[in-house]
Every structure is written in structure tokens, then in C-alpha cells.
């Protein structure tokens, strides 16, 4: 599903190149649940953003579902992202001016889903996350944990083939965190959704069927 070959990313300051990712080679099969671990600043989120097409690598080749992402135009990448990828951000990235309902509905608008179908899908996921009573509230009226649940609901609404999760339970209490990780495992095992998560938590990493460790922008010890 995903093949990264010799991927490097850097920033240049005063003529000096600082590597965020250095010669990453990684293959991820469809249906895998991969956990990426490593200390702060090791390049975990950068790698996730490159895989999620939110960021470009400076060097190397990236193939996604047989498409050479490194050669595609922005519009083509955007289409692939909208069609196949759900992203769960640690910082929520909810749209402040939209209600909970409207935030969750947004990916379906990009996919031109019919109105009646959108209503049914949003109602279903509001129910699944026990946030029906919050649907008319704005993000500023929610706790951090509630905002994270809305962000996860939004990522899942369009049944993506690939879920990218950056510290998905970072702002949840332990019970909510377990529920989300159980949901991810169910999506992976029963629906075949490929999941890549960045996490500091050994417990959360254990939900995956493979763990890789990053250190200073390099894959340290695949296992």
C-alpha cells in the first residue's frame, strides 16, 4: 500500500542543513496496524505528515496504492488524500466557526456525498461516539477530550482505507483512550483499515502488529 524509498526531509538555516528525516525506507502493507515510537524531535510527526501528503519530502520516492506521490501535482495528491486517508491530529484541527455536526460532516462534502446519506452517516457516528448532545456546540464549548473525540469521528466518517493518528489519545482520559484504541483495533481487524499511529505510549503501541522506532530522523530498529 505504501512504499517509502530513501526519503529525506530537511530544513536549511543560515546555509546549514538540519535533517528531520534521513534516508527512510519503509513498506507498509494494506491491513497493517503500525506504531511509530521515538523521543520528542525524532521525526515521528514529520514522517506521518509526509505519508499523509500534508508535507513533501526533499528527497526520495513515495508510492501510495501504486501512485508515485513524489511526481504528482498538488491537486492529484489532494484527491488521493480526500478519497483514502483519515487523519487524527493531536491538536484536533477542528474548524472553530463550525458546529460539531458540521465539522464531522466536512469530509463528506468534499466527497460530494448526497444530503440524505450525509445526515444518516453523521447521525450514526454521533451515536457511536456518544456525542449526539454536543452536535450543535462549537469547538470552544467542548473540553479537550470532547474535541479529540470529534476529531476522530471526523476522520472516520468517510470510511478511509488508511487512518493516520498522531498521539490519538493524548488528550483523553484513560477510559476514553482505551475505547478509541479498541475502536482502532476493531476497524483494523474487522474492516481491514490500515492504521499508522504515532505514540509515546507502550500500551497504545502494543495495539499495533508492528512497531518501528525513530531516532534523529532515522528508523532505528524495525521489528
Strand content: 25-35%
Order of helices and strands: EEEHEEHEHHHEHEHEE
DSSP strand tally: 10
Largest sheet: 6 strands, mixed
* Strands ordered across the widest β-sheet: 6-7-8-3-9-10
CATH topology: Rossmann fold
The figure for the number of domains is 1
Which CATH top level class fits?
A: Alpha Beta
- The gyration radius over C-alpha positions equals 18 Å
Mean pLDDT across all residues, rounded? Answer: 91
Shape: globular
In the CATH classification, which architecture applies? 3-Layer(aba) Sandwich
The count of helical stretches stands at 7
- Approximate helicity band: 25-40%
Based on secondary structure, the structural category is alpha/beta
Q: Span from first to last CA?
A: 19 Å
CATH superfamily: P-loop containing nucleotide triphosphate hydrolases
Give the uncertain stretches in residue-range form.
Answer: none
Explain what the structure shows:
The protein has 223 residues and is an alpha/beta fold. The protein has a single domain (2-219), classed as P-loop containing nucleotide triphosphate hydrolases (Rossmann fold), CATH 3.40.50.300. The chain is built from seven helices and ten strands. The chain has helices at residues 44-51, 74-84, 100-110, 115-128, 144-156, 174-191, 202-205, and strands spanning 2-13, 16-28, 33-37, 59-64, 67-68, 85-88, 162-166, 194-198, 210-215, 218-219. The chain has a six-stranded mixed β-sheet, with helices on both faces. A four-stranded antiparallel β-sheet has the order 2-1-4-5. A hairpin with a 2-residue loop joins strand 9 and strand 10. Helix 3 packs across helix 4 and helix 3 runs parallel beside helix 5 (144-156). The protein is globular, with a radius of gyration of 18 Å. The mean pLDDT is 91.
Amino acid at each position: 500500500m505504501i512504499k517509502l524509498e530513501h526519503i529525506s526531509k530537511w530544513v536549511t538555516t543560515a546555509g546549514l542543513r538540519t535533517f528531520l528525516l534521513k534516508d527512510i525506507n519503509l513498506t507498509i502493507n494494506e491491513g497493517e496496524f503500525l506504531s511509530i515510537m521515538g523521543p520528542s524531535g525524532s521525526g515521528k510527526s514529520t514522517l506521518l505528515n509526509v505519508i499523509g501528503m500534508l508535507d513533501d519530502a526533499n528527497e526520495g520516492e513515495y508510492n501510495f496504492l501504486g501512485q508515485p506521490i513524489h511526481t504528482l501535482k498538488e491537486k492529484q495528491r489532494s484527491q488521493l488524500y480526500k478519497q483514502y486517508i483519515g487523519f487524527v491530529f493531536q491538536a484536533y484541527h477542528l474548524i472553530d466557526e463550525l458546529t460539531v455536526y458540521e465539522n464531522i460532516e466536512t469530509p463528506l462534502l468534499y466527497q460530494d456525498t448526497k444530503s440524505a446519506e450525509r445526515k444518516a452517516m453523521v447521525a450514526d457516528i454521533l451515536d457511536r461516539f456518544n456525542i449526539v448532545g454536543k452536535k450543535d456546540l462549537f469547538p470552544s464549548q467542548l473540553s479537550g477530550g470532547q474535541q479529540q473525540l470529534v476529531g476522530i469521528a471526523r476522520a472516520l466518517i468517510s470510511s478511509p482505507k488508511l487512518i493516520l493518528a498522531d498521539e490519538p489519545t493524548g488528550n483523553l482520559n484513560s477510559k476514553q483512550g482505551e475505547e478509541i484504541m479498541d475502536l482502532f483495533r476493531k476497524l483494523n481487524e474487522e474492516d481491514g483499515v490500515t492504521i499508522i499511529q504515532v505514540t509515546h505510549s507502550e500500551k497504545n503501541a502494543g495495539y499495533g502488529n508492528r512497531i518501528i522506532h525513530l531516532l534523529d530522523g532515522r528508523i532505528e530498529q524495525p521489528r
